[in-house]
Specification:
274 residues, rod-shaped, alpha+beta, 36% helix, 6-stranded antiparallel beta barrel, Thrombin, subunit H
Length: 274
Amino acid sequence: MKWFREHTRLAIIIGAFLILIVIIAVSFLNKGNSSWFGKKVEGGLTKVQEPISSAGNGVSNGIFGIFRFRSIAKENEKLKEEVSTLNQQIIQNRLSELELAELRELSNSLNYVGGEREYGYVTADVIALDGSSWFNLFTINAGKEEGVIKNSIVVGGDGLIGRVLEVGSHWSKVISLIDENSNVSFQVSRNLQLLGILSGDGKGSLKGYMLDPEATVGEGDMLLTSGIGIYPKGIPIGKISSVTLDTDSLLKTLTIEPVVYFKNIQKVTVIIPN
């Protein structure tokens, strides 16, 4: 009895264990019987087994869910990679289309030169600006090594852009028509006998005057290079947007809208005399 008093907790545990063994043994011997005691035993075991089974099922479902989540995550990552690859292909195809369109436009510039004098040409990209919002001065990625020389003519798909001002090994600086330091002789496409001089205003437009004060010109007339000076004959320059008479000089002054959009030039053709 002394031992039981000193080890009460242990004795209770041993007793409960022995009772559990007896219950299990009786349940086993009465398996399938519908006796009152058997039902009570089975009911008790069910109460004990239910939370254990639920816990087991919960763990099983949790583990399955974890693996399923990882599988879905991997599938999502794979889909993201495929979408990214497709987007890159679309971008590359779009860039290729734009490149071809630009080159087709530049090929038009080859029709601006010809006649008695032979010319070569180089296609180049604009790589730097002078800081202005307009393309007054800009740099291209073609220079001496590509055959470019000073005063080579620079054109776009729509018409005249300007001339080469300075040349490096693989770069050139271009001064455009709209720069205030540019001067070009022109003729009116409707009547090639009508000549004039124009220059840039530094703000995206051109100003000019007719050499003959009696020349009949009007809004919408197309102006071309006359072939006088360094520019080959017949390159489109722009359209007359207004005509006024300068009472001091008695000359007809012109405001001209360039055919080239001087806020966005990406590719050019440099025409090189052979």
